[in-house]
Structures are given as C-alpha cells and as structure tokens.
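During the practical work, I worked with a single protein chain and the tokens that describe its fold, as given directly below.
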Amino acid sequence: MAERECLPTMDLLRSEPMQLARLIIPVESAHRVISYLGELGLFQFKDLNMEKSPFQRTYATQIKRCREMARKLRFFRDQMYKAGLLSSTWPTHGSEISLDELEVKLGELEVELIEMNANSEKLQRAYNELLEYRLVLKKAGEVFYPAQTRATTQQREHEHHRVERSIDSPLLLEQVLLSYFSLLGCYSKIYDAASYPPMVLKEITADLSKQVKLGYVSGLVQRDKSMAFERILFRATRGNVYLKQESVEEPVVDPVSGDKVEKNVFIVFHAGERAKSKVLKICDAFGANRYHFTDDTGKQYQMITEVTGKLSELKTTIDVGKHHWSSVVQAIGLQFEQWNTMVKKEKSIYHTLDMLSFDVTKKCLVAEGWCPVHATSQIQKALLRATIDSNSQVGAIFEVLHSKESPPTYFCTNKIMNAFQEIVNAYGVAKYQEANPGVYTAVTFPFLFAVMFGDWGHGICLFLASSFLILKEKKYSTQKLGDIMEMAFGGRYVIIMMSIFSIYTGLIYNEFFSVPFEFFGRSAYACRDSSCRDATTIGLIKVRNTYPFGVDPVWHGTRSELPFLNSLKMKMSILLGVAQMNLGIIMSYFNAKFFQNDLDIWYQFVPQMIFLNSLFGYLSLLIIVKWCTGSQADLYHVMIYMFLSPMDDLADNQLFVGQKYLQILLLFLALVAVPWMLIPKPFLLKKQHEERHQGGAYEPLHTLDENLEQQLNNRSRGGGHEEFQFSEVLVHQLIHTIEFVLGSVSNTASYLRLWALSLAHSELSSVFFEKVLLLAWGYNNSVILAIGVVVFIFATVGVLLVMETLSAFLHALRLHWVEFQNKFYQGDGYIFLPFSFSLINDDEE
C-alpha cells in the first residue's frame, strides 16, 4: 500500500473502517472537486459507466487531447535525453499556464523541433557526403597520378624504337596495349594479343586510328563487403573490368545510415556502356556511394579546394543550428516537469470524470466510491473548497450509503511497514478487517531468515549494504534503476531487519565467517590432553560455569560439532515451527471472534488447537524437558511408539512421572479432534440456513440501498431462496479437515528447513574459510595469498551473500505463506486504490 499521512493512530491488525459514499456534484465544479479529491487521495471511485466503451463516454475528447499532449511531451523528453539533460537535473519551476495555452505551446514547439531536426539531418547528410567526396578525390588522385607518370615515361622510352609499319602490324597493337596497361598499373610484362581481355581487344582493334578511351566509376564501399563486391564485378563482366581499392584509415560516417563504418575507396575501369551499366547496378546493390571524378590533375586540386570550402561553410551552419536546437531544448527542460505533471493530472481527472454518471435533467454528476470513515470531514472540506473556488451556486453533496458489498482493504502504513505489507499482499490481499499477518511478519520473517543465515560477519555485510541504500534513498527514489537493483532498493528496510536479526543469531551460533569468538567469557570446557581436538565430548571436562550466551566456542572444530549442532538446530526448528503454527491458529480465533462466528471457534479453533498440541505441542514439551534434565531419552522412539504401542512401558525413555498416561490422554484427544472438526459444522450450517429462511427474506428497509432492494425483489420474483448444498459443504469440510491433519505433520517437517539451511550456510562458510583462505595462508607466498583472498571474497559475496541470501529469503517466504498464513488467512480481499495524484504512474501508456 502506498505511504500516506493518516489521521488516526496506525492500527495494522485490522484494516481501516470503510464506507460507501455518494457524491452529487454540479457540472461547473466537477473538475475542481475531482482535482481536490486527487490531492487528498482518500476516495476510490467506482465506474458507473461499465456498459459504455471509452469512445462513448462524455469526456473522450478531452482525454484524446491529453494523450496527444502526452505524446508531444514524450517527444520532448527524448530530445532532452539526446541533449544530455538527465531527469534528475530538470527543474520543476515555471509560470502558471492553462491547459489550452499549454496545448498551443506544445504544438508550436513540436513543429519547430521537427523542422530543426529535419534541416539538421539534411545538412549533416550533405556534410558527410562532402567528406566522402573529398576522400574519393584524394585516394583516386593518388592512384591516377603515379599511373599517368609511369605511362608517359614508358611511352617516351618506346618512341625512339618506333618504325613505320602497317596499321595492322602486331607491334603497333602491342604498343597501344602497353599504354593501356601502363595506365592500370600492370607493368610486369607484355602479353600476347590472344591473352588480352576480349572486350578490351575488341574495342581497341575496332578503330586504332582513335585514341583508346576507358571509362571509370569511383566511390566508397563498406570494407566488409569489398571482397564480395570485387567477386560480383568480375563474374558479371567476365573479367573485363579493372578494380582498384584503397582502404580509409579511420571509420567514415555513412550519409544514409549516419553510423560510423569502415570503408574502401574504389575505382572501376571499364570499356563500353554495357559494362558501365552493369557496374552501376552492382554499386547500387552493395550500397556503394558513387562520386564524380576527373583524371585531370588541375581540376582535381580545384575540386578538392571547392569541397573543403563547402565543408567549412556547412560545419559553421551545422554548429549554429545545434546551438539554437540546444537552447530550445534547454528552455523546454526548464518547464518540462511542470507541464508533464499538469498533463498527467488533467488526464487522470478526465478519466475519473468518465467514471461518473451524468444526470442530464439535474445538470450534475453522480459519483460513488469507497473512503475511510475517518476521512469524511476531509472530503467534505474539499467539496466545500471546490464549490467556493468554482463560484458554483450549488454545493456538492456527500452522503453515506449502506451496502452489503465487501469494502476494499486499506492499511495505513509507513515506508518501513510498507515493505512487509507488500510481502503479505503478494500472497493475497486481506479480506476487509481480517487479521493482518503483516503485523507479525515484520518480526517473524527477518527472524526465520536469520535462523537460516546465522553469521554475524555476513549479517554486518548485509547491514552495510542496506544502510547504503537507505542513506541514498532520496537519490535513488527519483532514478530508474535496473530490475535487480530496483527490487533490492524496494526491500531495503526488509534487508536491514534481516541483517540485524542475522547478527543476533550469528552471536548465538558464535560464528563470524565460521570463526568462533569468546565475546562473553571463556569456554566452560578444557582439554584433558593435547589430542582433545580430535576427541568427542568425553575428551573435554567442564572447568567453569556454562558459557553465558550462545554456543560455547569450544564446540567448533571438534568431531562432535556436527552431531551437537544438528541436534540443537533440529530441535530448535521444531520449537519455532510449532510456536508459529500455534500463533496462526490463535489468529483464527481472533478472526472468528471479530466476525462473531461461534461455529469457527468451537468446531475449528478448539479441535485444531487440541490436535496440534496433543502431538507436536507434546513433542516440544519433551524437547524442553530433555534439555532441562539432561536425559538420554530417545524422542524418536517415544513419538513412534506413542501411536504403535501406547500401553507399553517407556522404560529408559521416560522423562517424568505419569508420562505414559499423559500420552494415552493426548492420543485420545487427537483422535477425538478429527471428527470434531469434520462432522458437527456442516449440520449446524444447514440448521442455521433453514432457520434464516424460515420466515422469508425480509430485511429492514433502512439498512438497504436502492440497488440491494432491486436485487431482493428480483430474487423474490425468481422463485424463493437459494438452496443449501449440504453435500458441497460436507465435502469442503472433509477436505479442510484432511488438509489440516496431514498439514500438521508436513508443516512441522517443513520447518526443518531452518535446520538444513542453517547447517548448509555454516558448512559452506567453513569450507570457504578453511579450504581457501587458510590454505592460501599456509603457502607463505604473497601471490598465492592474494589469489586466495580474492577467491574467498568472491565466493563469500557471490555464494553466501547473494545466493544464500536469496535462498533463505525464499524459504522464509514459503514458511509464512504456507505454514503460517494458511491457518487463518483467507487473503481474498481487494486493495483500496484511491484516486490520488501521488499514485500516478510514471510509465506512459
């Protein structure tokens, strides 16, 4: 339940008394009434228009307006995140503004930001394209200039060997081809004409009177696609192109996607329009950006100069635009929280108004809902203030209705008790004014956790972690945390309670990371000889008084430690379990007494108490007597033969005089309690039902509202009262009896998990300490010691402080939900959810 300031004294055992109220509100003051009730947060409205769809309701248009404004605010929030404005730094002040003015202003700001973003995107794309163009000019120039220089040099070397030959001379053809391949960078050797690419050979031999002219395409392609790009070009043109690639050292921002990508500058030389068409299609398929390039060196330098100048101009323009965009976003951020809160409040107000019934003839709205009895005066004051502020001639009317409908459950909690109440509510919300397990869960839950987690060293670690979360409460409560961190922060007070109880039980177990300490005095035992560490308790003699608090440290490390602690913790688990189950049955008595249900007292509470304590209460008594007397009696034998041979003598297993006759009496009472629970209650319920309907279904009119009168009239017209299903009641009682009888055994055994997990935690802690830390210490090597310390810390934190904490938490949760709460807690109620601005969810729809 949310935390609120409450007028009455906090009473968590029973939920707050609730009442069904009706509000008759004039139309002119309806908005203010709902607004003031939202600030008060103590009225839960009922939906009186369930039969209408959201689009058929009165205020559907206003809700649509609020949703549109909320969408614009989400857009503004995204822009602020993009600008690096964190939510924790946004101010909450601003000038007052009406909803209509806010709607106009949000529309103008949205249009302005969208236009600025579009212009910025276009400028940025043009800037990135120019950057790529400059790279192409530089890299392609580095390919062309050396090739042209080498081709010119080789041509001069062959000029003085030139002889007059026929135009069909193969020597001339070889010379022309030499110039062609020199341009491409192929200077290793001259091939025969038959080995030249067929397309190139055809182009050259077609008309040798003309100079050989090759086309080329240049641009950039992603580096991870360059190999596939080259293979596809080769296969599509059958090897009649030449591809030259140069890698770009740094990643390039792609103009289309805006992402940084590693790219290569490429130049594809081709001969003919057909080859060019294929090259262009392949470039488009691979997303390669093509840029125009000239082989004229002078024009290359001129183009590079022009591109550099344009880049400088675009950079200045983009910076100015970003500065203006940032100033607009910052101006929005100054009033964002105010606008966002206002839109959320208005949207929730109109949603609530749509739940009200509209009376056209009286020009008023009728509302019904639940509120705490103690909030009556506060609600009436809010109605009066709304009437005055709206200048209404007629005031709103508040009247209390009488209804047999079950009211919602409302516990007024603080932030400490709220966490424990949520643990109970996760199982089921308490029925109206049913006994609340949360009162006892606040103590028993951390205590049972600590029984399984008993180590005051680990408890201190949990205490420090939870204290840090509590100290940072204001900071973290306004931030969005991860799922795990959010869960830990929400349960910070539960964790600190668990850590305090763990320190207490750790002192009882005398374990600090499995190491015992003599805090409360010296051990009561001493060794007879030097080998007593490996002996049993027979090797120890008592030399001083019993250790005053907790387990004597001398038990740790001996061979008898495990049997001793097993016996201690197992018996302690049974005592704690029987005590908590008795508490649950006693709570069922208080529930029956509160609801004036005498049948549950005499035919449920009494036989259940007799049955449970005749068996397991007696076992608890034997445990305590055995501890006090130091007897060697075998309790397993006593309990088993109490059922198998109740008339036999106990012999050495007798703990006190008259034990045999007491066992016979308790066994008889346990056997009697079973039919006591099963048989009388269904017959008495049937008798009550017949007596109730003997005189008809008449009720005093002053206790009924209009809806209930209509239901009774319909029922009387429908043909009499409802028939009592005796067989169903009998089967239900049989199931309940069997469940309790078998559950008494299984639930008692279930509490042995306290012993098992406590033992596991202690042994794991001991293994990590002895086999990791002490083993590393024994090597006398600083490196091995450092490694051992690191492994010990990670094992302690990961296994003992995280996994074991979660395990003990879940087992304690099960003990409360199943073993404790099923004795008295129905949990079939529904929670009180008032209309409150403080409960508006931060998550947008």
Summary: The CA atoms of residues 57 and 200 lie 78 Å apart. The radius of gyration is 44 Å.
